[in-house]
Specification:
heterodimer; A: alpha+beta; Rossmann fold; OB fold (Dihydrolipoamide Acetyltransferase, E2P); six-stranded mixed β-sheet; B: mainly alpha; MetI-like fold; 2 domains; 24 helices; globular
Chain lengths: ~350, ~525
C-alpha cells in the first residue's frame, strides 16, 4: 500500500535550532492525514522535504516501501511520484485545463492523455471544462483542477499545502468535502498541511500536531480533541477549561464537581483537569455541582460562550451553551459536568 | 548609459498577499541547477572581462607610469571639468525634476496627466541628438554651456520619475497628521513631505551624475573636454594606449563610486506607509494666482526639452536639399543599424536569461555575485567598455578586431543590466510554486525552464529585448570605436555629420533614429499595465 513513513527527519536552515528536529510520522496507505501547527512550526518545511524540494539533514522518507530520501539518497522531485496541490491551486496560467491536467502524463499517447483528462475531470465534477483557461474558473474550480492535475499521473502520495485557505468561507466546506471524496476514490495517500484546527479535525482521518520541529501528538481527530497529551495541545486544538483537581482512581474531583477520566493517569494524585466548554452545562443553581455568577456573554449565533466566575476558583470558566440565551451578566447560575476529562501534571 | 530601473517593468509582486510564500521559501534556497549556472557564469564572466582587462592594461607599464598619467595636470583638468559639469547638471535636474513632480502629482495643475507624459519624452532622445539640435541652432553654445544645457534637458526625467513616484506613494495621512498638529501647508511640506522625497531625489540625482560622467555624445559634439572625450582623444591621438587605459580606469572608479552611492540610497529609500490598505490620493493643492506661473514653467521645460529639438530637426529637414544627403545611404544605414541592434539585443537577451532566472529564483552568495557581475555594465561608460574590448581583441583575438561580433559583445556588456533586470522581473511574476508543481509532475530543471518559466516570463523578456534593441540602436561611443571599417549606424553618421557642421546632412539620421526608437518605446508603453 501507499504508506508514508517519515523517520527522524532533521532540517536546519542555518546555525541554531533546526526547524525539523527528529520528526517521525506514519500515514497508512489511502488515508488522509492533516499536519497541524502554528505558523513557523515547520509544516511547510516538512512538506518540501517529503516532496524532495529540500534535502533533509538526517532521517528518511519512505513512500510505498520506496526509500526517497535518506543517508546518501535524495531522489529529485520529478522522480518521486508525489503530487502536490499548492495554495490557490497554482494552475499553469498559460495552459488550458486539459493541458494542465495532462502536464504530468508523459508516457501516454494523445488518445490516452485525452481519455485520462476526461476521466479526471469527471472525477472532480468538472466535465466539459477541458478547454477553459485557468483565469476563467472560480477559486473552487481551480482547486479541483489542481487536484485532478496532481492525481492524473496516479501518484502514491498527494501533498496539499493549505489548499483551502484562499477560498471564501462559504465555499470552503463544500470544496473540502469534495476533495476528501475524490482523494478517497483515487486511493492515493493524502497529507494536508493546515493551520486551521477545524479544517484538520473535520477532514482528516489522522491529525499530527507539530510543535518545535516534532510531532507532539498524532491521533484521530476524536482522540486528539478529547484525549490531548498535554494542556498546550488541548488549547491548540480547541477551547479548553483547565481547573485543578484531585484524582481518585478513574474520576477526578474539582471545584466544578466530579468527572470521569478518559485515561487513568499513572501515579498522579492531583493535577490540572482538562474540560471542553461544551462539557459544562448550565443548570438551576439549586440543582448543580457548582455555582457561579455570569461575568460575560459572547453570542455567536449557533451558540454562545458564557463566562462564569465560580466560587473557589481563581479563574473564570467558559461555558458553551446552545439555543436561546437567557443569561445576562450578574445572573447566578449552576454548573454540571458531562462526559470525560483528562488530567495533566501541574508543571506541564 | 541608460537607467536600468526605467527598463525594469514593475518589480512589485502581483500576487495577492495570501499567495506569497513566507520568507523561508519565497525563492528556492537550493543551488541552481548546472544547466543554469554554467551559461550564467559564462555571461557574467563576459560582463566583467573588459573591466578586469582594463585594470591589467592600465598597470601594464608599471604603477609608476599609470600614476604619472593620472597625476598629470591635464588629467586634473579633465576631472575638474567633469565634476563641474556634473554638479551643474545635477543641480539643474533636481530643480526641474522636483518642481515638475510636485506640480504634476500634488497640485490641481490643468492637464496634469498630459504634462506627466510630456516631461518624460526627453528620455527617448539621445543626448547627442539634443546636442545636435542646440549646436545647429546656436553654434556659439559649444563648450560648457551647450553641454550643460543638452545634458540637463536629456536627463532631468531621471529625477522627475522617482520623485513623482515617491509623491504618489507617500501617505497623505502623514501630512494630515502634521496639519492637525498645528503646522501650516508650507511648514508641512518642509518638515514632512520633503524629507520623504529625499531618498528618491538623491537616487535620481545620482543617476543623472552617472549619466553625465559617462556621456560621450553630447560633450564630444559640444567639443567640451571631459573624461570621456579625453579618453577618446587620447586613444585616437597616440599609438601608446596605456594612457587611455589609465584614464578609463579612473573614470570607472568614479562611476563605480557613484553606483555604490546610488545603490545605498535606493536600499534606504523604502519609506513605507504605516498601516495596511491602499493609500488615499492626497487632495491636490490649489494653485490660485500661481497657476499661470506653474503652467508657464511646465510649458517652457517641455518646449525646450521636446519641442525645440523637434522643431530644429524639422527646420533642417525642410531646408536640407537632396544634395545634402543621399536617400540610398540613409536607407542602407538604417538597415545596418537595425541589423546590429537586433543582433545586440538577441545576444544580450540570451546571455541575460540564465542570470535573470537565477537572480529571481535563488539567493545566496553565488546568485548575488552573478547578478552583481551582470550589472557591471551599468557602472562602466560605453567608451571604456569599447576601449577594453579593443585592447583585448588586438592582443588576443586579432581576427575579431573591428568585426561585428566584437561590437555585439560590447552591446551585451553594456546592456546586460537592462536585459537582466527585465528577465528577473518577468520571472518574479511567475510564482515559484509553479516550478515546484512542474517538478512534482515529472519535469527536470530544464523541462521546467522550457515549459513553465520561460513561456510565463516571455512577455517580460520580450519587452526587455525590445528595450535592449532601442538602447543598442542609440549607442554611440562603443559603436564608434568597434564598428567594422566603413560601417555606419544612424548614431555614428549623425555624430560625424554634426561634427563637421553639416547639420542638414545630419538631420535625416536624427529623425530616423527618433522614429525608429519611438516605435518599440510606444509599444512598450502600451503593454505596460
Amino acid at each position: 500500500m501507499n504508506d508514508l513513513q517519515v523517520t527522524g527527519v532533521v532540517k536546519a536552515y542555518g546555525p541554531g535550532k533546526p526547524v525539523l528536529d527528529g520528526l517521525d510520522l506514519t500515514v497508512p496507505g489511502g488515508g488522509l492525514a492533516a499536519v497541524l501547527g502554528p505558523s513557523g512550526c515547520g509544516k511547510t518545511t516538512l512538506l518540501r522535504v517529503i516532496a524532495g524540494f529540500l534535502e533533509a539533514d538526517a532521517g528518511t522518507v519512505t513512500v510505498a516501501g520506496r526509500l526517497l530520501g535518506g543517508p546518501g539518497v535524495h531522489l529529485p522531485p520529478e522522480r518521486r511520484r508525489i503530487g502536490i496541490v499548492p495554495q490557490e491551486g497554482a494552475l499553469f496560467p498559460h495552459l488550458s485545463v486539459a493541458r494542465n491536467i495532462a502536464f504530468g502524463l508523459r508516457d501516454l499517447d494523445r488518445a490516452g492523455k485525452r481519455a485520462r483528462v476526461a476521466e479526471m475531470l469527471d472525477l472532480v465534477g468538472l466535465p466539459g471544462y477541458a478547454d477553459r483557461m485557468p483565469h476563467e474558473l472560480s477559486g473552487g474550480q481551480q482547486q479541483r483542477v489542481a487536484l485532478a492535475r496532481a492525481l492524473a499521473p496516479q501518484p502514491h502520495l498527494v501533498l496539499l499545502d493549505e489548499p483551502f485557505s484562499a477560498l471564501d468561507s462559504a465555499l470552503r466546506g463544500a470544496v473540502r468535502a469534495e476533495v476528501r471524496a475524490v482523494l478517497r476514490e483515487s486511493g492515493a495517500t493524502g497529507l494536508l498541511v493546515t493551520h486551521d484546527q477545524q479544517e484538520a479535525l473535520s477532514i482528516a482521518d489522522l491529525v499530527a500536531v507539530l510543535r518545535d520541529g516534532r510531532v507532539a501528538q498524532c491521533a484521530t481527530p476524536q482522540d486528539l480533541y478529547h484525549r490531548p497529551v498535554d494542556p498546550w495541545l488541548a488549547s491548540f486544538v480547541g477551547d479548553a477549561v483547565l481547573v485543578p483537581g484531585t484524582v481518585d482512581r478513574d474520576t477526578a474531583s474539582t471545584a466544578l464537581g466530579r468527572i470521569a477520566l478518559a485515561t487513568a493517569p499513572e501515579g498522579l494524585r492531583d493535577g490540572l483537569v482538562l474540560l471542553r466548554p461544551e462539557q459544562l452545562r448550565l443548570t438551576e443553581p439549586d440543582d448543580a455541582d457548582a455555582e457561579g455568577v455570569v461575568t460575560d456573554v459572547c453570542f455567536y449565533g449557533h451558540d454562545a460562550m458564557i463566562t462564569v466566575a465560580v466560587e473557589g476558583l481563581d479563574q473564570a470558566v467558559d461555558i458553551r451553551t446552545p439555543g436561546p440565551l437567557r443569561q445576562e451578566p450578574g445572573h447566578r447560575v449552576g454548573i454540571r459536568l458531562t462526559g470525560e476529562a483528562t488530567v495533566h501534571p501541574h508543571t506541564a | 548609459m541608460t537607467a536600468p530601473e526605467r527598463s525594469a517593468p514593475a518589480r512589485r509582486d502581483p500576487r495577492p498577499v495570501s499567495a506569497q510564500a513566507p520568507a523561508g521559501r519565497a525563492r528556492a534556497t537550493g543551488r541552481p541547477s548546472s544547466i543554469l549556472i554554467v551559461p550564467a557564469v559564462l555571461a557574467a564572466a563576459l560582463a566583467v572581462l573588459p573591466l578586469g582587462y582594463l585594470g591589467v592594461r592600465a598597470l601594464e607599464r608599471g604603477p609608476a607610469f599609470a600614476r604619472d598619467v593620472v597625476a598629470d595636470s591635464r588629467t586634473g583638468e579633465l576631472l575638474l571639468r567633469s565634476f563641474g559639469l556634473t554638479a551643474v547638471v545635477v543641480t539643474a535636474c533636481l530643480l526641474i525634476g522636483v518642481s515638475l513632480a510636485w506640480l504634476t502629482v500634488r497640485t490641481a495643475l490643468p492637464g496634469a496627466r498630459a504634462w506627466s507624459v510630456l516631461v518624460t519624452l526627453p528620455l527617448a532622445v539621445p543626448s547627442y541628438v539634443t546636442a545636435f539640435a542646440w549646436l545647429s541652432a546656436a553654434p556659439s553654445l559649444a563648450g560648457f554651456a551647450g553641454s550643460a544645457i543638452a545634458l540637463t534637458l536629456a536627463s532631468f526625467p531621471y529625477v522627475y520619475l522617482p520623485v513623482a513616484a515617491a509623491l504618489r506613494g507617500t501617505d497623505p495621512g502623514h501630512e494630515e497628521a502634521a496639519r492637525s498638529l498645528g503646522h501650516g501647508p508650507f511648514g508641512t511640506f518642509l518638515r514632512v513631505t520633503l524629507p520623504q522625497l529625499r531618498p528618491a531625489a538623491a537616487g535620481g540625482g545620482l543617476l543623472v551624475a552617472l549619466y553625465v560622467l559617462s556621456d560621450f555624445g553630447a560633450v564630444s559634439l559640444m567639443r567640451y573636454d571631459t573624461f570621456t572625450r579625453g579618453i577618446y582623444t587620447s586613444y585616437r591621438a597616440s599609438f601608446d594606449r596605456t594612457p587611455a587605459a589609465a584614464l578609463s580606469a579612473v573614470l570607472v572608479l568614479m562611476t563605480v563610486l557613484l553606483v555604490a552611492a546610488e545603490t545605498r540610497t535606493r536600499g534606504r529609500a523604502d519609506y513605507a506607509r504605516t498601516g495596511t490598505g491602499t493609500a488615499r490620493r492626497a487632495v491636490p493643492a490649489t494653485l490660485g494666482r500661481l497657476r499661470p506661473l506653474a503652467l508657464g514653467w511646465c510649458g517652457m521645460i517641455v518646449a525646450v526639452a521636446v519641442g525645440f529639438p523637434l522643431a530644429t530637426l524639422g527646420y533642417w529637414l525642410a531646408v536640407g536639399s537632396s544634395a545634402a544627403w543621399d536617400p540610398a545611404t540613409l536607407a542602407g544605414t538604417t538597415l545596418t543599424t537595425l541589423g546590429v541592434a537586433a543582433g545586440g539585443a538577441a545576444l544580450t537577451t540570451l546571455l541575460a536569461l540564465p542570470i535573470g532566472v537565477i537572480a529571481a529564483r535563488h539567493r545566496g552568495r553565488l546568485a548575488h555575485l552573478l547578478e552583481q557581475a551582470a550589472y557591471a555594465g551599468h557602472a562602466v561608460p560605453g567608451i571604456t567598455v569599447a576601449l577594453a574590448l579593443v585592447f583585448l581583441a588586438v592582443r588576443y583575438a586579432r581576427p575579431l578586431y573591428q568585426e561585428t561580433p566584437l561590437l555585439l559583445c560590447a552591446y551585451a556588456v553594456l546592456f546586460l543590466p537592462v536585459a537582466v533586470a527585465a528577465t528577473r522581473a518577468a520571472v518574479l511574476q511567475a510564482p515559484p510554486v509553479l516550478d515546484d508543481v512542474a517538478r512534482s509532475l515529472g519535469r527536470g530543471p530544464f523541462g521546467v525552464l522550457r515549459e513553465v518559466t520561460v513561456p510565463l516570463a516571455a512577455p517580460g523578456i520580450a519587452a526587455g529585448a525590445a528595450l535592449t534593441f532601442v538602447v543598442c540602436m542609440k549607442e554611440l561611443p562603443a559603436t564608434l570605436l568597434l564598428r567594422p571599417t566603413g560601417m555606419d549606424t544612424l548614431a555614428t553618421r549623425l555624430w560625424t555629420e554634426t561634427g563637421t557642421g553639416s547639420f542638414a546632412a545630419a538631420a535625416p539620421y536624427a529623425a530616423a533614429l527618433i522614429l525608429l526608437a519611438a516605435v518599440p518605446s510606444y509599444l512598450l508603453g502600451r503593454h505596460r499595465p
